[in-house]
Amino acid sequence: MIGLTSSRLLIEVQGLCKSYGAVRALDCVSFSVEEGEVLGFLGPNGAGKTTALRILSGFLPGDEGVVQVAGLDVRVDSLAVRSVIGYLPEGVPLYPDMRVSEYLRFRARLKGVPRRRRREQIERSLESTGTTDVRGRIIGTLSRGYRQRVGLADALLNEPKVLILDEPTVGLDPEQVRQFRALLRNVGRERTVILSTHILSEVEIVCSSVVIIDRGRIAARDRAENLRSRLGRGLCVIAEIRGPQEDVARALRGIPGVRSLSRAEPAGDAGEGGEGGYVRYRLTSGAEDDLRERVYDCVRSGGWWLRLLQEESLPLEDVFLDIVGRKT
């Protein structure tokens, strides 16, 4: 997990609204981000994430509400706000015919980096993002992963206090995603980060807190582990049972406190399900209630075989789907 601990608010959003014609993209959104925090910004497609980030970075005006970054009002001091923000939008708008170092020099001038510091800042950005070895390459010849790195190097040129990343790993292969996460851990140690992503495992690995936005409104805001406990679905039980599947499933669903049940054949048992082999059942409860004793008693009463019974933390994916699904 990256980021520092501080109690000073660096970003504050109050009553932010934005409409596109009759479509209400943001409906009185309010949240805050502390200095050094790494915030995961989650939501289904069309929830309003990108709109909120564009307003926050000064690229789009809001209709109503107040947005402050480092004590600056985005509506009044847009240029000053941009000077303290590094923004990596979804689909990085690079110039494919320029060389990497040429592009970064061009961007440093646009961002007002003083001439005496440009070379130093470009070198630091190249080193931080692992792009020193491609500095002389034409951007259009780079892989998507390296183009994302160049975009991140651009976002770091002005030494921003706040780094805003909108779906930075979309379209990357698993190895590129792993490398980009490592970059985020590195560059996020000294700044506040807002990470918009659809990859929930990424949030659990990288982020210290989570905001979930749905249909233009904040649906939840807390630390990832606290969201699970607040929903009362913090734990689930995994059981591998051999017995008639329908009878076993019916009995497990009848256990007091069971909220949901799913099943699948364990690895190595393909083709051996049902009465002939073990099936993995996953049970969740409506509260942080240990179901293991009840599952054991249920299996023993049915005369079936039990070879695995364990409790595990509920994935953030389930919490996210519960919050969003509850509204749909």
Any chance you could write out the topology, listing elements then pairs?
Blueprint: E1 9-20, E2 23-34, E3 38-42, H1 49-56, E4 64-69, E5 72-73, H2 78-83, E6 85-88, H3 100-110, H4 115-128, H5 144-155, E7 162-166, H6 174-187, E8 192-196, H7 200-206, E9 209-214, E10 217-222, H8 224-230, E11 235-242, H9 245-253, E12 258-264, E13 278-285, H10 292-302, E14 305-313, H11 316-327
Parallel strand pairs: 3-8, 3-9, 6-7, 7-8
Antiparallel strand pairs: 1-2, 1-4, 4-5, 9-10, 11-13, 11-14, 12-13
Task: Provide a descriptive summary of the structure in words.
With 328 residues, the chain is of the alpha/beta class. Strand 1 and strand 2 form a beta hairpin. Helices cover 34% and strands 29% of the residues. Helix 4 crosses helix 5. The chain has two domains: 9-229, Rossmann fold (3-Layer(aba) Sandwich), CATH 3.40.50.300; 232-327, Alpha-Beta Plaits (2-Layer Sandwich), CATH 3.30.70. It starts with 8 loop residues before the first strand and ends with a helix. The radius of gyration is 24 Å and the shape is elongated. It has helices spanning 49-56, 78-83, 100-110, 115-128, 144-155, 174-187, 200-206, 224-230, 245-253, 292-302, 316-327, and strands spanning 9-20, 23-34, 38-42, 64-69, 72-73, 85-88, 162-166, 192-196, 209-214, 217-222, 235-242, 258-264, 278-285, 305-313.
Summarize, please.
By secondary structure, the protein is α/β, with parallel strands linked by helices. 34% of the residues lie in helices and 29% in strands. The protein has 2 domains: 221 residues, P-loop containing nucleotide triphosphate hydrolases (Rossmann fold), CATH 3.40.50; 96 residues, Alpha-Beta Plaits (2-Layer Sandwich).
